[in-house]
Design goal:
The complex is a heterodimer of chains A (408) and B (395).
Chain A lengths: L12 H18 L7 E7 L3 H13 L4 E7 L1 H10 L2 H5 L3 H8 L5 E6 L12 H6 L3 H12 L4 E6 L3 H8 L4 H11 L7 H22 L3 E6 L2 E7 L6 E2 L2 E2 L5 E2 L8 E3 L1 E11 L4 E3 L2 E3 L3 E5 L2 E6 L4 H8 L8 E6 L5 H5 L6 H4 L5 E5 L20 E5 L6 E5 L5 E6 L2 E2 L4
Parallel strand pairs in A: 1-2, 1-3, 3-4
Antiparallel strand pairs in A: 5-6, 5-19, 6-11, 7-10, 8-9, 10-16, 11-14, 12-13, 14-15, 16-17, 17-18, 19-20, 20-21
Helix pairs in contact in A: 1-2, 5-7
Chain B lengths: L2 H13 L7 E7 L3 H13 L4 E7 L1 H10 L10 H12 L3 E6 L12 H6 L3 H12 L5 E5 L3 H8 L4 H11 L7 H22 L1 E8 L2 E7 L9 E3 L5 E3 L1 E2 L4 E3 L1 E11 L4 E3 L2 E3 L3 E5 L2 E6 L4 H8 L8 E6 L5 H5 L6 H4 L5 E5 L20 E5 L6 E6 L4 E6 L2 E2 L4
Parallel strand pairs in B: 1-2, 1-3, 3-4, 4-9
Antiparallel strand pairs in B: 5-6, 5-19, 6-11, 7-8, 10-16, 11-14, 12-13, 14-15, 16-17, 17-18, 19-20, 20-21
Classes of the chains: A alpha+beta (408), B alpha+beta (395).
């Protein structure tokens, strides 16, 4: 089948202008590209119009060199379907070198799956195994060293819109994306500044309260998870080791921390479908004992999750807790985006796998989870109640009916 | 099988001749995705150990030319150099896709910057690999709307597909067998020319009187090449030419290009070039002379010849009567010469004195019905090779 590639040729002037402004926001506020930096862009080929606009915006911001690495899910599918076993985990030398070169550079990754179910009919175990571990390892090292100012932004495309709306209404998706990323504001840069200040304040409040654990309660969920005294709550206003400020996700509505990998008990029911490795996981239910996921059930895609949490020792332990309330612009759209970047900002979520180094000031072995995996899944919904538990066992409401309960 | 799959199968099995267990390097533009994907599938079916598809994008290149500092224009990112080195070290199969989706994209940029915007280290590395015959490789053209628009004045993709399928013999019931017969026929021409012991090729026609000297070690080649390890492959699909490497020190006279030349996103029209002592000393053109001039300053030897190739009227590309604005096709329409680096495989002894080594290689078309081509043998006999586009030696 010949796929007609969206090259952005037929865009109206208004749409072109929106694309350029969006790219500029990602470059200036998101990755916050510094003059003289190399900029690495990672995109699906279907995101070419955005990758191009990002490249232009990056040079305009003074980038030294912009490298675009295009990926193609169909090529990946060919490998999983027809390639030998060794191909699944093979990493070409140059991709390792490219990953190493990210040290001190800026990076922008684009999301928005043009064919979300492309890999759905393949062997789940092979799909789960197909990962360039060595690249992940290098990237993890950069993240831990806070060596990269980076951001993730989505590119609205027909396949993604179709997954969301049942029809390829790209304009409707663009409007949702523009709303969520505050591109609809007269001064998006100022709107972002204000927005991040509000999230920073929430994180500061939680840090002052020094809870020992969180308790999640709702339909199918009764989950208690320990917090770390050496991990703090943060918004997605990050700084590199060199002090460069950046916003790694656009949109972002969350405040988050790294939990104690050793302390988690109970059951969790996911509240939204989860797009994962080319398939959609639905109705996910996890049972947790002594910090570890011991049972996985799902209406669809359980095998994919099982394969992923079996990938390494830390994959079945938790790495992130994130709180989002009803003021979230993503949540306000009322849309399921089938894209983690968006859906995780619609509502509260939890991730198994790697913790968030930026939040953690302790030493290895002091409770932050290590893994090559980090998968967010959504647990928030109107019925979900989230409490903070103090060291003396007192419960303090944090979220009720999707409303933030602590002072703002 | 879709037409993309059939085409990909031909490129994998006949073109690059991918061997079981080989790493396969695919070089494509984003607009070539439908065929690049098919190539990946067919390569795995042929037993590839891994298929690495590298997509490039002319818009990214345009942004570089417009936005980057001067010194970055010819910079090679170390990771891309590494990629190329691994392709050589592992004796990978290489499949490159051409077919410009936006041929005029760079037309409004300064030609001098466009000409300089090439990754020099990368070009040197791939030249080395071609000269050492490390890889079995092929180049195919991927029909797309922008290319069709340029050729026909309308984005008639179906018409372009049919033209391409005709030129690469995909319209035959058994394209593989058709290629085998074709390779044999052109191979015979190469043998006949080698037997003649040609010292000089003489092109004569309107605006053209050019003598190109050959080396005693120059060898004429047909469609099929061999890697150093002995893997046969067809480097261009389509291909209709017999070609050899000339003596870079011997080219005298002037030549008028008979076809437009697509170069770095620009179209060069009415190119006229004058040679003295093997070197291009004057470049004129109705359009795009600056791109050629920029390219000729890339290195010391860019202005010397690196290839001379003969094509007659039986060429399927010539028979279409079309100008493809793509060297892969247009150079197979008719006779051509190239300035820049030579193919070492077409010389007994490889890179010996007189063989051009350069980071550029640009073919331009000089043949046609009005251009007579003669061979002057080492004993001084003049032997007609082409008259009115008809091959004059026995077949």
């Amino acid at each position: 089948m010949a796929v007609e590639l969206d090259t952005g040729v037929g865009l109206t002037e208004k749409a072109k202008d929106r694309l350029e402004r969006y790219a500029e926001l990602a470059v200036r506020v998101g990755a916050n590209v510094e003059e003289g930096q190399n900029v690495f862009i990672v995109s699906q080929i279907e995101h070419a119009p955005l990758a191009r606009a990002l490249t232009r915006a990056a040079y305009a911001a003074g980038a030294r060199y912009v490298d675009v690495n295009y990926r193609d899910q169909h090529v990946r599918k060919a490998m999983i379907e027809l390639g030998p076993d060794e191909a699944l985990t093979y990493t070409p030398d140059w991709l390792k070198e490219r990953a190493e070169s990210l040290d001190g550079a800026a990076m922008i990754a684009t999301t928005g799956d043009p064919e979300p179910e492309l890999l759905g009919d393949l062997d789940g175990e092979r799909v789960g195994k197909a990962q360039m571990k060595e690249v992940t390892e290098i990237m993890r090292r950069h993240m831990t060293a806070r060596a990269v100012n980076w951001s993730g932004v989505a590119y609205p495309n027909a396949g993604w819109a179709n997954e969301m709306f049942g029809e390829p209404d790209v304009e409707r998706l663009w409007e949702a994306v523009a709303f969520c990323t505050r591109l609809d504001e007269p001064d998006p840069v100022a709107a972002w500044r204000e927005h991040m200040a509000r999230l920073e304040k929430r994180a500061a409040t939680l840090n002052e309260l020094r809870f020992d654990a969180l308790h999640y309660r709702g339909p199918g969920t009764d989950f208690t998870v320990g917090l770390l005294s050496k991990a703090r709550w943060m918004s997605a206003l990050f700084h590199t080791a060199n002090g460069r400020e950046y916003v790694p996700n656009m949109p972002t509505e969350e405040i988050f921390t790294t939990p104690d990998r050793r302390r988690a008990e109970g059951t969790i029911a996911s509240s939204l479908p989860l797009a994962l490795l080319g398939d959609i996981v639905k109705g996910l239910k996890l049972t947790v004992k002594d910090g570890k996921i011991v049972d996985v059930e799902a209406e669809h895609g359980a095998e994919l999750i099982r394969s992923q949490i079996g990938r390494d020792e830390g994959a079945s332990y938790f790495g992130e807790l994130a709180l989002v309330d009803g003021t979230s612009r993503v949540g306000k759209t009322g849309i399921t985006f089938f894209d983690t970047l968006y859906d995780e900002n619609a509502t509260c979520h939890i991730a198994y796998g790697f913790g968030i180094p930026e939040t953690f000031e302790g030493e290895p072995g002091e409770g932050m989870n290590i893994s090559s995996v980090h998968t967010d899944f959504m647990v928030g919904r109107p019925e979900l109640e989230v409490d903070g538990l103090t060291t003396d066992g007192k419960a303090v409401p944090i979220i009720r009916d999707e409303t933030w309960q602590l002072p703002e | 099988m879709s037409r993309e799959d059939r085409y990909a199968e031909l490129a994998v099995r006949v073109g690059a001749n991918v061997q079981p267990g080989q790493l396969v390097d695919v070089l494509a533009r984003v607009e070539h995705a439908p065929v690049a994907r098919a190539v990946a599938r067919e390569a795995y079916k042929a037993g590839a150990s891994y298929v690495d598809v590298y997509y490039s994008d002319q818009h990214i290149r345009r942004a570089l030319i417009e936005g980057a500092k001067d010194e970055m224009l010819s910079w090679t990112p170390p990771w891309l150099l590494k990629r190329s080195v691994q392709v050589g070290d592992e004796r990978a199969a290489v499949i490159a896709l051409t077919g410009d989706a936006e041929p005029d994209l760079l037309a409004d940029l300064p030609g001098e910057r466009v000409g300089r915007a090439r990754m020099l280290e990368l070009a040197e590395e791939s030249n080395r690999q071609v000269n050492e015959q490390l890889n079995n490789w092929t180049v195919i053209g991927v029909p797309n709307a922008g290319w069709a628009q340029q050729m026909f004045g309308e984005p008639d993709l179906e018409r372009l597909w049919q033209a391409v399928e005709f030129t690469v013999r995909l319209n035959e019931d058994d394209p593989v067998a058709a290629w085998r017969a074709h390779v044999t026929r052109i191979g015979k021409r190469a043998s006949a020319l080698n037997d003649l012991q040609v010292d000089e090729i003489h092109f004569r026609g309107p605006g053209t009187d050019l003598r190109v000297g050959l080396l005693p070690e120059s060898r004429w080649q047909g469609c099929e090449s061999l890697t150093a390890a002995g893997i046969p492959y067809v480097a261009n699909m389509p291909t209709e030419e017999v070609f050899t490497t000339p003596d870079m020190r011997r080219a005298e006279g002037y030549v008028r290009s008979t076809r437009p030349l697509a170069l770095y996103g620009r179209i060069v029209k009415g190119l006229e070039v004058r040679f003295e002592g093997g070197r291009i000393v004057d470049v004129k053109a109705d359009e795009g002379a600056d791109v050629v001039q920029g390219q000729l300053t890339t290195d010391d030897t860019a202005a010397h010849l690196g290839e001379v190739a003969l094509v007659d009227g039986t060429s399927r590309i010539g028979q279409t009567g079309l100008t493809f604005f793509d060297t892969l096709f247009d150079e197979n329409t008719t006779c051509h010469v190239a300035y820049g680096g030579a193919y070492a495989e077409a010389v007994e002894g490889g890179v010996i004195e007189g063989v051009n080594v350069s980071n550029v290689h640009t073919d331009f078309m000089v043949g046609g019905p009005e251009v007579d081509v003669d061979a002057v043998t080492r004993s001084g006999t003049v032997v007609p090779l082409l008259r009115d586009d008809v091959w004059q030696l026995g077949e």
